[in-house]
Amino acid sequence: MTVIVLDNGGGQIKAGLAGDRDPLTIFPNCQARPISSKKFITGPSLLSQDLTSATLRRPIDRGYLINPDLQSAIWAHLFSTVNLTPSLSSLLLTEPLFNLPSCQRAFDELVFEEFGFMSLYVANAPELVHLYEASRRPYGVVSKRECSLVVDCGFSFVHCAPVFQNFCVNYGVKRMDLGGKALSNYLKELISYRSVNVMDESFLMDHVKEKLCFVSLDVERDLVIARKRGYDNLFKCTYVLPDGVTYTKGFVKDPAEADRYLTLYDGATGKHTERMETDEQEHEEKLENKNKIDLTKNEFSLTNERFLVPEMIFRPADLGMNQAGLAECIVRAVNSCHPYLQPVLYESIILTGGSTLFPRFAERLERELRPLVPDNYQVKISTQEDPILGVWRGGSLLASSPDFETMCVTKAEYEELGSFRCRRRFFH
Q1: Which of 64, 95, 319, 395 is the most buried (most CB within 10 A)?
Q2: Which of helix, strand or coil describes residue 47?
Q3: How far apart are CA 13 and CA 24, in angstroms?
């Protein structure tokens, strides 16, 4: 029997078969309607379309299912695209921690009543990440002590979840209502206020965030550098918006210019004394040309936005949000657990989720965390090899185990007992 593994995230949906290393398909979990069309587009074709100012509809908001009909349409398109037959398959489905009973019932109705799956197993992200990391490193701390702290920085929120013996310690889980979507929205506001109105450009701002944003290791120093003019401003770079004719995707105008900030962390002083005078003259000429308005291109410059946006994760209070920072959230999660577990949890922190892909994310988190942790505890932070696919790979591993079928709820059991009784089997 075929087992389908479905990581149904708020931002992206990943689907494939049990036992495979990579999913069959990954695409945004939404429908989009471009300006030039009257129809909403679903599935992998979204990635090749010109989605400038497109109208978006998402079935999941803040981690919870709000539109089951839309989710059903996306799933139907997904299963037809990858040639999977739900009525002849089992399903491993991921859902967020502490999912509401009404959302659970809606998912169960979709799985059994609408698509007719033979059986269902529901898992949460931290348990699958722990399982995958323990299998990857059989002699590591996570595998030997069967304990880890999974920090899941996703699209809708951040969860700091202790996992012990493959089960999530629910009373120790801490949540930040801040994720990749909030970061993109903050970047939209900054650019719209300073340069050009991009409040409707969700996909475009996601691309800008992924390509140009990074985590600062010294915010005060970097703010001073960002105020400088000309070549001394190491953070300034230009992003070109799509024009819909020559190019339908935005791009970084000068990637070398965008990477100049790396000299701050490579031991350089920020003032390139090795440059020749000819290089300075060439650069001054380039600046003069850039100051001339080019009506054929719509572009904007970024400076301190590049590190202020990821800074939200570490200092949300600076933006008026009544939230603890990520380091404090981790400390609270660990302190909620038994004292015997605390040193082991600090020693086995696993980062997963798309927002952990910012450069120097783990290094900054360790700097923030170290002063808050007792001196006799070690702090070790590891990032997954692919934080976006980590949850799905854990699900693929679990679904390929020989005992998987005994863990599932069958369609007959669902019809006899109902959603609430069946959900007890998953220990969530």
Answers
A1: 395
A2: helix
A3: 11
Contact 348, 145 (CB under 8 A): yes
Nearest to 257, CA basis, from 209, 194, 302: 302
**Helix axis angle, 305-314 to 180-194, nearest 10°:** 140
Q: With beta carbons less than 8 A apart as the criterion, state whether 358 and 214 touch.
A: yes
**What is the Cα–Cα distance from 78 to 89, expressed in whole angstroms?**
14
Instruction: Encode pLDDT of 137-164 as tens digits.
Output: 888 888 888 899 999 999 999 999 999 9
CB 178 within 8 A of CB 273: no
Q: How are strands ordered across the β-sheet holding 251-252?
A: 251-252, 237-240, 299-302
CA 337 to CA 218: how far, in whole Å? Answer: 32
Global pTM reads: 0.89
Instruction: Say whether 306 sits in a helix, a strand or coil.
Output: helix
Contacting residues for 291 by C-beta, under 8 A, at least 6 apart: none
Residue 144 token pair: 């030997």
Strand partners, 407: none
